[in-house]
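Late entry, written up from scratch paper. The run itself happened at the end of the previous shift, but nothing got recorded in the book at the time, so transcribing now.
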Amino acid sequence: MQKYEYKCVAIFGFGRRTTMILNEYAREGWELVFVFWAWHYFKRPIG
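Output as recorded:
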């Protein structure tokens, strides 16, 4: 069974700034799971 770690981050800003931040998390292996207002929820496999 795959195990995951989770992270919740508030990202304020629009357009280019948000895109740059999301791309940085993706490079680190985080997958965007859910967005609620400014809160972005990520997960990535452990190991």
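The chain has one domain: 4-45.
(Scratch paper discarded after transcription.)
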